[in-house]
Write a structure and sequence with these properties.
30% strand; four-stranded antiparallel sheet; alpha+beta
């Protein structure tokens, strides 16, 4: 059941309602990784509520998962169209975890899921540009590949130049590329490829910052991150990079 955040915080014995309102105003309270606003409502049973990055309520034990998202699964916790969603893939996790960012329905690969509000905020905050690397199979003119690494406008936003590596090509103008981007605009890789006259045949995210997709994971499967992997991710997420 949803309640006002002030009531939830005071009911958890953390502070008075008046103090809770000041905490929210100061920006130290987040819900599902997003900074809360005075008047917001949440459900302590289903939402990840944090104060200074520390979860309250039923989420004391932190879990962060590496999931291999398959093609055809949407990156949501529920779907009004009844499509398969990532929440269904991690039902065996002992706590409710949320996706860190998104992968579109027709893309596959590395997706992080966590109930660690501080990590979620660090990796998705607008000022935290954690690089993401994709293995992309495209069809189109080979001479246009260098154009993918140039600065371009996507939906009115000028993206930073991507890093593009050609892994292999065949005689039918099909190329396998590794593309590293520095932002996470909606369907960015697909829109970049469309601008450069490429048709995307397969798109798989293989790395987020220093974390590389475990090759032993099959689509639809997941595992907990190791302490070393978590440490690397936190360091990457807490590095605030200015837009270039």
């Amino acid at each position: 059941m949803q309640e006002r955040l002030q009531k939830i915080l005071s009911g958890a014995g953390l502070c008075s309602r008046r103090a809770a309102e000041k905490w929210i105003e100061s920006g130290i309270v987040t819900v599902n990784g997003k900074t809360a606003q005075v008047g917001d409502r949440a459900d302590i049973e289903t939402d990840i509520i944090c104060v200074n990055g520390k979860p309250i309520g039923g989420h004391e034990e932190l879990h962060t998962l590496m999931l291999y998202k398959p093609v055809g699964v949407v990156t949501t916790m529920s779907d009004e169209k009844k499509r398969k969603n990532v929440a269904e893939l991690v039902r065996q996790c002992p706590v409710r975890v949320l996706p860190v960012g998104r992968l579109d329905q027709y893309s596959e690969g590395l997706l992080l899921m966590t109930n660690d509000g501080a990590l979620l905020d660090a990796l998705t905050h607008p000022s935290s540009h954690v690089d993401k690397t994709y293995e992309v199979t495209v069809r189109g003119p080979k001479e246009h590949i260098p154009d993918l690494g140039k600065r371009m406008d996507i939906d009115g936003y000028t993206i930073r130049p991507a890093q593009v590596k050609l892994c292999r090509s065949d005689a039918e103008s099909t190329h396998v590329l590794h593309i590293t981007i520095h932002e996470g605009r909606n369907r960015q890789i697909r829109k970049m490829c469309a601008q450069c006259s490429f048709r995307v045949l397969r798109l798989c995210r293989i790395a987020i910052g220093p974390l590389v997709l475990d090759k032993s994971l099959r689509p639809g499967h997941w595992r907990e991150l190791t302490p070393q992997e978590l440490s690397m991710l936190r360091e990457a997420g807490n590095r605030r990079n200015p837009r270039m």
